[in-house]
Structure formats: C-alpha cells, structure tokens
C-alpha cells in the first residue's frame, strides 16, 4: 500500500510539474512584441536641424514659384475671358469696348470693371489692364501682332 501512495504522490507531483512547465512555455509564447512605430521619416529632413537661414531660403524659393503659377493661371483666365473688341474717340478721349465673359463694357483710362479689372492705358492696338496687382496687355481683336 505504501508503494501505491508513493506512486500516487509521484504522479501528482509530476502532474503539477508538467503544469508549471507548460505555464512557463505558454507565457513565453504569448509575450507581447513591441509594435512598429515610426519615430522619424528619414525621407523628410528634420526641420529642427536645418538652419534658420536655409529654411528662409527654401521658403523664399517656394513663394516665387507660387506667384508664377498664380500669374500663369490668371493670364490664361484673362486671355480666355477678356477681349478688346474696338475703340472710339470722343472729345479727345479714347474709349475701349471690352468683352468680359460675354458682357460688353465701354471703358476709359482709370475705370474699374467688376471691382477687380483696372484699366491702365488704352491704345489703338491694345489695352493695358491690371488684375490683382499684375499687368496684362489685351490686343485688339483681329490685329495680327506677329509681324511687329
């Protein structure tokens, strides 16, 4: 009988030992791995390391590019929407007939159309206008400027 008790004790102890060993293995397998975190994008330079003068230079280079792009867009819009249809002399003053988006305006030097188009100078062959502090020449419709 004492042999049975000893055998039973060995089985119980080995069972607990098996559980302890399995708990350790399972805990090692289920260990949380650290997630992937981007601390710094290596493709974009750290702005704190760039000197102030360099940063100002980069900003200044961006501004003319934006201004040129805005001017080009505005120039295309003006070319497609403002036309110099003709002119008339009245009391020693020249008046221009301008078509803006299909609407006609009779203007003279110094007039403002649509609160944004300033008439600077009117000639027989062209009108000089100012839009958003930028000057544009509008040639008389039907005049070929290639030969000049």
Major beta-sheet overview:
4 strands, antiparallel
| Contiguous uncertain segments of 5+ residues | none
Radius of gyration (Å) = 41 Å
Strand order of the largest sheet: 4-5-6-7
End-to-end separation: 127 Å
Q: Indicate the proportion of strand residues.
A: 25-35%
What does this 3D model show about the protein?
By secondary structure, the chain is α+β, with helices and mostly antiparallel strands. Among the domains are: 1-29; 82-139, SH3 type barrels (Roll). It has two helices and seven strands, in the order H-H-E-E-E-E-E-E-E. It has helices at residues 2-29, 52-81; strands spanning 82-90, 93-100, 103-107, 112-113, 117-122, 126-131, 134-139. The chain has a four-stranded antiparallel β-sheet with strand order 4-5-6-7, with helices on one face. The chain has a three-stranded antiparallel β-sheet with strand order 1-2-3. It starts with a helix and ends in a 9-residue tail after the last strand. 7% of the residues are buried. The mean pLDDT is 75.
């Amino acid at each position: 009988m004492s042999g049975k008790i000893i055998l039973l004790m060995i089985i119980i102890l080995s069972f607990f030992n098996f559980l302890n060993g399995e708990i350790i293995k399972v805990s090692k397998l289920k260990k949380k791995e650290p997630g992937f975190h981007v601390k710094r994008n290596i493709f974009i330079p750290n702005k704190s390391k760039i000197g102030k003068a360099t940063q100002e230079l980069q900003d200044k280079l961006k501004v003319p590019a934006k201004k040129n792009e805005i001017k080009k867009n505005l120039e295309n819009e003006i070319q497609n929407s403002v036309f110099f249809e003709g002119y008339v002399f009245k009391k020693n003053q020249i008046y221009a007939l301008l078509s803006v988006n299909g609407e006609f305006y009779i203007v003279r030097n110094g007039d403002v159309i649509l609160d944004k188009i300033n008439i600077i100078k009117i000639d027989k062959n062209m009108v000089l206008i100012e839009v958003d502090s930028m000057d544009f020449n509008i040639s008389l419709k039907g005049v070929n400027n290639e030969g000049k």
